[in-house]
Design goal:
- The chain is α+β, with helices and mostly antiparallel strands.
- It has one domain (3-93): Alpha-Beta Plaits (2-Layer Sandwich).
- It is 38% helix and 30% strand.
- It has 3 helices and 4 strands.
Length: 101
């Protein structure tokens, strides 16, 4: 079952964050993950949520997503991101959409 990581990032140091943006993709690809959304503009339709930068990643399953997040390949990039931004991140198990439900 596919799994998704949704990320809301507030960038505190854009120069350092630009370095992070080049480091993360190779580690994501190694775990067969892919970006579905990466920093596009957002429009709040309801509520007060206004993410500065919004990202959605897709992985084959939740276990693979967890393996990536905790991997040695992502460790340096993750530490860099954590040093220059405030992040809210969710792992979502995502069964395939069934229009009959």
């Amino acid at each position: 079952m596919p799994a998704y990581i949704a990320v809301d990032i507030s960038i505190n140091d854009p120069v350092t964050y630009d370095r992070y943006k080049t480091m993360a993709p190779p580690s994501i690809a190694k775990y067969d993950g892919r970006y579905l959304v990466r920093g596009g503009s957002t429009t709040t339709l309801e509520g007060s949520w206004k993410p500065q930068r919004f990202v959605i990643l897709e992985f084959a399953d939740a276990e693979t997503a967890r393996q990536w997040w905790d991997s040695p390949e992502y460790a340096e990039a993750k530490a860099l991101r954590q040093s220059c931004s405030d992040t809210d991140m969710l792992l979502v198990d995502g069964p395939a959409f069934d229009p009959k439900l």
